[in-house]
Amino acid sequence: MNFRESLFPAICIPSLMLGLMFFSMSLTPSLIPRDAIVQGILGGLVTAIGYLCGRIVALVWRAADLPRLLRPVARIVLLLWSGAALALFAFALTSSLTWQNDLRVRMGMETVESLNVIKVLGVALATFVFAYAIGAGVAALFRVIRLRLHRIMPPRRANVLGFVTGALILVIVTRDGIFDHVVTGLDESYEAAQLLFDSAPPLPSEKPITGSAASLVDWKRMGQPGRDFMTSGPDADAIAAFTGKPALDPIRIYVGRANGSTPEERAELALAELKRTGAFSRKVLIVTSPTGTGWMDPGAHDTVEYMHGGDIATVATQYSYLQSPLALILETNSGLEQASATLAAVHEFWKTLPRDARPRLYVHGLSLGAWSSMFATNLFRLVGDPIDGAFWAGPPFPSNFWNYAQNARESGSSWVLPKIGDGSLVRYASHVADASEAEAEWGSMRIVFLQYASDPIVFYDPYSFWRAPPWMNEPPADDVSAHLRFMPIVTQFQLALDMALSFGAPAGHGHAYYAQDYIAPWAQVTAPEGWSAEDTRRLKAHCDNGFQNGCSND
What we know:
With 554 residues, the protein is of the alpha/beta class. The chain has 2 domains: 3-191, no CATH class; 206-452 and 513-542, Rossmann fold. The protein is built from 20 helices and 8 strands. The chain has helices spanning 3-7, 13-26, 36-63, 71-106, 117-150, 155-193, 219-222, 224-231, 236-243, 263-277, 298-307, 324-330, 332-351, 368-376, 379-382, 400-407, 456-459, 490-501, 515-526, 533-542; strands at residues 251-255, 284-289, 312-317, 360-366, 389-393, 426-430, 433-434, 446-450. Strands 1-3-2-4-5-8-6-7 form an 8-stranded mixed β-sheet, with helices on both faces. Residues 1-8 have low confidence and may be disordered.
């Protein structure tokens, strides 16, 4: 075999047909609609995966010295196999537009008139060629190492040692070379986006908020997400105009990652700022874990401040600058440690206060913040002198407490909207359920999960590589396509891509949680005094700007 053939081996037709079948299956709908470019990337990637699977099967077949088909029989089998692959390809390609439009309609999106087949196939081909070139390069590396080792040792030993050596080279290059540089670049770019230190905008002088001259928290170190949180949201006048009653300015505390060098230092700073602002004299205190970048969803916080007439304090501490998917992979422990340190500091002080003279204590988090908040809310926060409740939105699939609750659901209740016992402790909400219905009244502690059936951050399943996730075995929810089907390997990649796309879904679907869906669950968890179903309806109407804008404007 010459050098060119070593780098670019001949295409194996049976494996290519398997890849084509994978491509056809990738055209079926998953949780989030896909445009032509995204579909092309997904299709090209799974085609390469299918091709690789075919090559692995052939390699194992030859290594096991299994019998081979006679040439005439092999040709007939190849024709039948190729015919089946092409027929599946034609069916999927002609049906894909219907499948994607069905999902768009369910999410209230505009339908598209064409699939743009040329763009899909072009992007898929480019993606496949790129992946194939990488695979061919890796195979060539193994082959070169093995051939060199053949000169000094027996073939079998050379094969094993060549594989191990090649694998080590790839790990070192990707981990210590490409991976480290990519992570460093991302971390620096997101840190720059925080507008720290000299890049920070000037401090507003109207109110003595956290970060002001009177505050213990440095404004320039706080970061842009924290400054946005401090300078947004409803004030006493806006709340009073909505409720028709006297109101207070809500207290908001935010400690940026750069405000302290360790999780414990940031937690102690947050506690000191809570004391300085008189937060422990309010009726309600919420300890919130932000998302990966430190973002605080205004739709979650503006709404609950209206509900309690501003007699409320919220505290958060930042642990990362990265987007949540990256923080989930790269800074998992940072989030868990920071949430634990913050809640521990606040809870330990809160326990020392007289029961009749301290705020009701709640925890909250969205997405990665929900995971870290759940981790921090361990058994010791739920017994002895427990918190009053928790409200977690969009809990990521690895969350241990969420998984425990999901698996404790009553027989016959759905995976996407489970029923837990008699509903006196844990309830679920979505854009079609508000956590108000249960067999029993609430107990002394109230826990609510808000999750959308179409949210892949919640319902991704790492085992979907070979088996269907539990929710796929149930009738589809109203924003999940009836055409969705489980397909080994392909479904795994579809759901993984869905996670990346879920933030751009329409409000109320995917991972796009918005103000209207926070209101009723907050009412269930925090039980605002004198709050009624009509108040919920009015606040929903007031917060009609969408999940990104919150409810701070009339």
